[in-house]
Structure formats: structure tokens, C-alpha cells
Amino acid sequence: MIKIYGMKSCPDCADILHQISGSDRYQMIDIGEDVRYMHAFIDLRDQDPAFDEIRGTGKIGIPAFIREDGTVTLDAEAVGLCRPLHFQTEPHRIYAEVDGTCVAEITFFQQPDGTYVIDHTFADASLKGRGIGTRLVELADAYIKEQGSQWTATCPFAEHWRQRHQ
């Protein structure tokens, strides 16, 4: 079994957690859940060479993957998972790129009355089943709320999410 140190509140870890849901090949250890898990992770991070690159950079080093043979990697692909997506926010869209190509996007615009309209979501077929569409709508919802506004949607996926969550 591959053990994964992470936190549910970490966006990269949440993506990994979604990928491993229902699999008995992986075990997520939430270092924020119990101080013993945090101590075990810190001991590992302070001693294992897999963390050499991030040590001293201010990065935590999660998600971290411990293979069955005890070796550690920070590379999700090395343990059969997809690397986490990093979302970028612009005033009218949130998106993720892989190797310079947009693989996921949600777009929105602000109406004269100040409300926003989410008009499009897109996730590459290679991301199917990872919850990326939902993640995009959650990020857009949070962004729009940070702007002090509300939203509607012409995008059926976003509208369906809104009806279930608001």
C-alpha cells in the first residue's frame, strides 16, 4: 500500500484524495488530523533526501508518497496518479494548464448590476472522473464571493452545482 502524507485543506492533496477515492492501493494520512501524524511527517521531511529540493524554501512538501518499499517521492505520477493541477485566477476565468496547454477552464463575466454569470466550463477528456468541473465551479464561487457578489449561470454544469449548493 502506498501511503500519502497530505492535508484535506491542501488543494493538491484534495485532488490526489479524489483520485484515490475507492482504491485500496493508497492510504491518505491527513497530517492536520492528529499531531502524531504531523510529527511523523516532519521527521520524514527533515531526514529523507526526497525533500532536499524543498527544504528551506518554505514549502511543506505535501502531498508526499511513501512507496511499499519505503522510498519517498513527491511525484504523483511516480506512484500511478496524475499530477495535481494548479489553477490560475484571472478577472474573468479560472484555468489550469499542463505543459502550456489549457486543460481545464471556467469563464464568467460581470453584468452591469454587479452579479456574475458563469457561461462556460471545460475539462479535457483526460481529466474525466477527477472532479475537475466541480473544483472549477467551487473556485469560481469562492472568487465571486470574495468580490462581494453573487452569480447565476448559463452553463448547465455550473447551474446544476449552484442549485445543489446555494
UniProtKB/TrEMBL annotation:
InterPro entries given in the database record: Acyl_CoA_acyltransferase (IPR016181), GNAT_YJDJ (IPR031165)
Gene Ontology molecular function terms on file: transferase activity
Segments forming domain N-acetyltransferase: 86-166
Listed Gene3D superfamilies: 3.40.630.30
Pfam families: Acetyltransf_CG
SUPFAM superfamilies: Acyl-CoA N-acyltransferases (Nat) (SSF55729)
Top-level taxon of the source organism: Bacteria
UniProt keyword list: Transferase
Designated name of the protein: Glutaredoxin-related protein/predicted GNAT family acetyltransferase
CDD domains attached to this UniProt entry: NAT_SF
